[in-house]
Structure formats: structure tokens, C-alpha cells
UniProtKB/TrEMBL annotation, chains A, B:
Signal peptide: none
Transmembrane segments: none
Species whose genome carries this gene: Kistimonas scapharcae
Source taxonomy: Bacteria, Pseudomonadati, Pseudomonadota, Gammaproteobacteria, Oceanospirillales
SMART domains xref list: TOPRIM (SM00493)
Top-rank lineage group of the source organism: Bacteria
Family: Belongs to the RecR family.
Keywords of the record: DNA damage, DNA recombination, DNA repair, Metal-binding, Zinc, Zinc-finger
Domain Toprim, residue spans: 80-175
Biological role stated in the UniProt entry: May play a role in DNA repair. It seems to be involved in an RecBC-independent recombinational process of DNA repair. It may act with RecF and RecO.
Record protein name field: Recombination protein RecR
UniProt xrefs under SUPFAM superfamilies: Recombination protein RecR
Length: 200, 200
């Protein structure tokens, strides 16, 4: 004996959400059915509107429901800088840090030959075309410090350098204010490999 | 600068789900938009179907899309027993334990004078009417061992006893296989207060 078929289906579909296992799905379904049907209907409507309305910015490829995203539409950013990131969430994180004022290009992933994800899938041709169009002087590669992110940065660096543009990679290491003790081994190794001489 | 308005609205509506804070909502929205639009549309459709289709069993008040739930429709259960629980999830937990074979009545809550929840809100009149209709000989009160659950059990016990029926309360204490060390203080106090003499 279990919940009725429609409730079981609701619990199963809730599991398409990342981090939602059977127990959370049951708790969510019960909560919505018992206490927040209005919220559930609003969620249903917004899910549908977002899946149908949200596409990609035709310039930077980030997720947006307009042809150009708010950043690409802005005329007050520094045209000399283009920062390449893996995801829209990376754009938000950099924007919230507040110090970068240039434009972005969002790969929506990284190179992963094992999964059949090549340069075309991460928009490499669009990135190169964009570089030909705009006035960028420097491309900042801010892909993740993972094996795939490094390989992607390496590939793009080659391509961009051939255009005669300056290419840089953001620094990786121990976070400011972070205690060495609590930093993971990979980050520490990276911080040592990337050490700089301290000059008087 | 943040995500576009429709994406922000999606993240906000996802927060109607219990246990979903701003960070999880963002992760969920990005996951659905980047990698599982089909799952998101299925979820939208199921949410709507469930909110519109799921009502209450007209006999036991549990959540179901049929007039009578599967348990109330069954003719193989023990008619002499009626177990009163707070929620549909409690029914499932008891069914999964597998030893109880009677029927249920689901309060969909508990008495809570502070929140204005009285006997009518937990279906007390329907419970008494049901007892008059069926052949139940014993009502088992399985509300939670909380202040409100105990008060609810106490109130219902009075009402049911007046009908001349046997009333029982499920036992509460240290879980089987549980180690005393890891049991919370409230449960331990309950276990001591409910101690039974061991006879030779
Ligand atoms: Zn853009
Ligand atoms: Zn029922």
C-alpha cells in the first residue's frame, strides 16, 4: 500500500530536481498538497513559462529571455575586456564580486572528449567570431580549475592568441581569508605550483 | 546585475518547496534550464494535475485522487480496528511497518488552539460519524508524541470512550535497536514515565 498513483507520480517528477531524493520528494509533495497548493500552481506556471521563454543571449550565450542579455545590452561596460566562463552562475558570482567591468562569453560547459563535447558544443566558433567583431583587447579565461576547465582554457588560449589578442587566466589558490588548514589538497597544490617570487 | 527576470522568478517560486533556500533554488533553476527542460515541463504538468486532481478520501480524509482511497476501498482489512493518525505520511509509515491490518482516519493535523485549529478542523465530527457507521471495536490513537499530538489524543479518547468503544494509544519510547546514548531526552523521559513492571 502506498500513496495514490497521482501523488506517486508527483513525488517521482519532483526528483528531476538536483539534490532531491525519495524522502525529500515525499516531504515536498505532502507540503504542497497539504499546505501550499497556490505555491505549487505558481511553480507549475513559472516552470512552463521559463522553459518556453528562456533561451540564450545571441552574443554571450548566457541564459536569458531577451535576444541580448542585460550585460550585453549595456553600453557602460569596458569593451576592451571579454571574460570567458563555463556557466551563467559563474557570471553572477563574478558580478557579485563587483570588480570586473567588461563583457562575458558563456561556454555553457567545458570541453569533454569522453562525453563527445568538442569546441563547437562550447561555442568556440561564436567566441572567435565575436572577437573579430568587437574591440576586445584582452580575453580573460575564467573556466574552473578542474582538468576539463584547464584543458578548455588551454584550447581557447591557443585560438585567441592566434588572433593577436592578449590572453590571461584568473589566478587560483588559497582563498583570501582562508586558513591553509581547511583548504583542499588540490587547491594547495595549485597554490604552490603557481607561486610567485617575492621581490624586495 | 543578476539573472534575467524570468529566471529570477523561477528561482523565487522554487522556494515554495520545503528545505529549498536561495542557493538550492539557483542550482535547481540552472540545472533545469541547462540540462533538463523535459523534466521541468513534466514537473509543471504533474504539479498542475496533482493540485487539481488530488482531494481527500471521503471516508478517512487522506489525500487521494479517487473518492475512496485504496485502503478504504479494500475489503480485506480488519474492520474492528481504526487507527487515527495526523498525516498521510503516517499512514504510509505504518503500512510499511506491515503489522497493522485495520483502517485509518487521517486528521490532517492536530488540535492547536493558538492557531485556531479546533475539533472541526481535524475532522472530529467525521470521525465520530464514521464510528457510528462501521463495526470498529477499538480506536488506536497514533498521533505524534508532541504536546499537540498528546492533547489531540486526549480529546479524541474522551469522545470515543463516550461511544462505548475501546481506545488505545500506541507506545512511545526508545526505538527498537536504538542505543540509549543516542535517543533524545524527551523520548527517554517518555520511556521512563511509561515504564512497565517486569513480572516473573
Ligand atoms: Zn549576453
Ligand atoms: Zn480512505
Amino acid at each position: 500500500m502506498s500513496f495514490s498513483p497521482l501523488i506517486v507520480r508527483l513525488m517521482e517528477t519532483l526528483r528531476c530536481l538536483p539534490g532531491v531524493g525519495p524522502k525529500s520528494a515525499q516531504r515536498m509533495a505532502m507540503h504542497l498538497l497539504e499546505r501550499d497548493r497556490e505555491g505549487a500552481l505558481a511553480l507549475a506556471e513559472t516552470l512552463q513559462a521559463a522553459m518556453e521563454g528562456v533561451g540564450r543571449c545571441k552574443r554571450c550565450r548566457t541564459l536569458t529571455e531577451t535576444e541580448l542579455c542585460a550585460i550585453c545590452s549595456s553600453h557602460t561596460r569596458d569593451q576592451r575586456l571579454l571574460c570567458v566562463v563555463e556557466t551563467p552562475a559563474d557570471v553572477l558570482a563574478i558580478e557579485q564580486a563587483g570588480s570586473y567591468r567588461g563583457y562575458y562569453f558563456v561556454l555553457m560547459g567545458h570541453l569533454s572528449p569522453i562525453d563527445g563535447i568538442g569546441p563547437n558544443d562550447i561555442g568556440a566558433p561564436e567566441l572567435l567570431r565575436l572577437l573579430d567583431e568587437i574591440e576586445a583587447e584582452e580575453v580573460i579565461l575564467a573556466t574552473n580549475p578542474t582538468v576539463e576547465g584547464e584543458a578548455t582554457a588551454h584550447y581557447l588560449a591557443d585560438q585567441v592568441r592566434r588572433r593577436g589578442l592578449k590572453v590571461s587566466r584568473i589566478a587560483h589558490g588559497v582563498p583570501l581569508g582562508g586558513e591553509l588548514e581547511y583548504v583542499d589538497g588540490g587547491t594547495l597544490a595549485h597554490a604552490f605550483a603557481g607561486r610567485r617570487e617575492v621581490t624586495a
